[in-house]
């Protein structure tokens, strides 16, 4: 997998991301990054806003402690500057 590093940006402005039958609100900055990456690559991508249940404080705290390992173990880290 590759990991995406980005800033969340304005949390008030969101887009809907479809994952199977579900929809997930994502920030405009993440939406733009994913849209651009989709044009260039087919990736298995780790993205915190998608891979971590943001509504579950316990999971979020646990995953944040693992982020160093997640990024270190990634095949590559893509940095989105906007």
Write the layout of secondary structure elements.
Layout: E1 2-5, E2 14-19, E3 22-27, H1 28-40, E4 45-46, H2 48-51, H3 57-73, E5 76-79
Parallel strand pairs: 1-4, 1-5
Antiparallel strand pairs: 2-3
Low-confidence stretches: none
The structural domain count equals 1
Order of the strands making up the biggest sheet: 4-1-5
Average pLDDT reading: 90
- The number of helical elements comes to 3
Proportion in β-strands: 25-35%
Give the proportion of residues in helices: 40-55%
> What can be said about the biggest beta sheet?
3 strands, parallel
3D shape: globular
Order of helices and strands: EEEHEHHE
> How many individual β-strands?
5
Secondary structure class reads: alpha/beta
- First and last CA, distance: 21 Å
Radius of gyration: 13 Å
Protein name: Heterokaryon incompatibility
Domain Heterokaryon incompatibility: 1-82
Pfam family, one: HET
Describe this entry's structure for a reader:
The protein has 82 residues and is α/β, with parallel strands linked by helices. The longest helix has 17 residues, at 57-73. It has one domain. The protein has helices at residues 28-40, 48-51, 57-73; strands at 2-5, 14-19, 22-27, 45-46, 76-79. Strands 4-1-5 form a 3-stranded parallel sheet. A two-stranded antiparallel sheet has the order 2-3. The mean pLDDT is 90. The protein contains 3 helices and 5 strands, in the order βββαβααβ. Helix content is 41%, strand content 27%.
């Amino acid at each position: 997998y590759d990991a995406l590093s980005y800033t969340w940006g304005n949390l008030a402005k969101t887009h809907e991301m479809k994952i199977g039958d579900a929809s997930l609100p994502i920030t405009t900055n993440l939406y733009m990054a994913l849209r651009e990456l989709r044009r260039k690559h087919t990736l298995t991508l780790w993205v915190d806003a998608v891979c971590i249940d943001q509504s579950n404080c316990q999971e979020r705290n646990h995953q944040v402690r693992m982020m160093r390992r997640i990024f270190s173990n990634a095949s590559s880290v893509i940095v989105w500057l906007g």
